[in-house]
Specification:
By secondary structure, the protein is α+β, with helices and mostly antiparallel strands. The chain contains three helices and six strands. Strands 1, 2, 3, 4, 5 and 6 form a six-stranded antiparallel β-sheet that branches.
Amino acid sequence: MPKPDPQLLEPDRYPARFELTTRFQDLDPNAHVNNVATAALFEDARVRFDWGMGVREAMAAHGRKSMIVSLGIEYLGEMFYPAPVIAYVGSLGAGRSSWSIGAILAQEGRVAAFMRSTIVCVADGRPASIPESFLEEIRKSLIRLDEPVT
């Protein structure tokens, strides 16, 4: 995965923010949060974000499901226990049957990781169009790129 656009590393551009807890069991031999735990933190943030947008309800109402088809993480710095992690999450855009989410994890004011995932809308085991009502939620949750942030 190429290094993320610097704008994607600016927390103020993201529409959603979640505080997540680090756990002692997530440490590796170097005493920092390990890669698998980082992926789990991103999963927690992504699921909270999706639920907040109503993805489950929107998909169920149209006989559809959502599935992750791509996930990439860029590790940019270390995270440590017991300090909490702040996850910033937003939509990167949508096509006919899939949408992308971007997120960063920050700890004590430092961005430690960036994640991009692509999610596909599925019906009967095949890609299906995203319900229009959910497309509107995706549009409302876009990460603000190429505009000043205050």
